[in-house]
Description:
Layout lengths: L1 H4 L3 E3 L5 H10 L3 E4 L15 E4 L3 E10 L18 E9 L5 E8 L5 H19 L6 E6 L10 H4 L3 E2 L18 H4 L7 E6 L2 E7 L15 E6 L1
Parallel strand pairs: 6-7
Antiparallel strand pairs: 1-3, 2-3, 4-5, 5-6, 7-9, 8-9, 10-11
Amino acid sequence: xxxxxxxxxxxxxxxxxxxxxxxxxxxxxxxxxxxxxxxxxxxxxxxxxxxxxxxxxxxxxxxxxxxxxxxxxxxxxxxxxxxxxxxxxxxxxxxxxxxxxxxxxxxxxxxxxxxxxxxxxxxxxxxxxxxxxxxxxxxxxxxxxxxxxxxxxxxxxxxxxxxxxxxxxxxxxxxxxxxxxxxxxxxxxxxxxxxxxxxxxxxxxxxxxxxxxxxxxxxxxxxxxx
Length: 226
């Protein structure tokens, strides 16, 4: 799928270290940043950000946890799991322009955790980017539909790519490995948000890449200019 779509940058969710290393070994054109959410090293799931290493220069990167103590491995509020955000500041080697990519996965159980996580993400993006005019992208599994009120602070701050571009679709992103029972509008829970850029295309990657399902979620893809 990655070879077919050829993204400049992509984020993963729920990737264990052996999967991260497999992607790295299988795709030598990419480098990545990100740590395991359980220990800040290799333990547990990663929200790694991959980027084409010849096209981009890594300027800065980091991770923070979605909790009351975001600078250390921790579980926040009523969350069932440790949750983390991985980010990268990249410089385009062609244009010289810099941009930020944030990648995350909100908790699937904790309603308070999802709400507080959005507020924390908004605050951290402002801090990390220093409220600059640089393009910012936020991708992830948000375990919520876009009409949920938890997104209100984020909508005031960023745009969502699916609903802000001409070339788009209305397909579900969660399939549960069974499209017949799960591909409904209520299962659009994965999003890419952006600011200081223009969204020119969005699509849900539900095609065949050699197996019926490559995950219990369909990947999503957005194209931007800035």
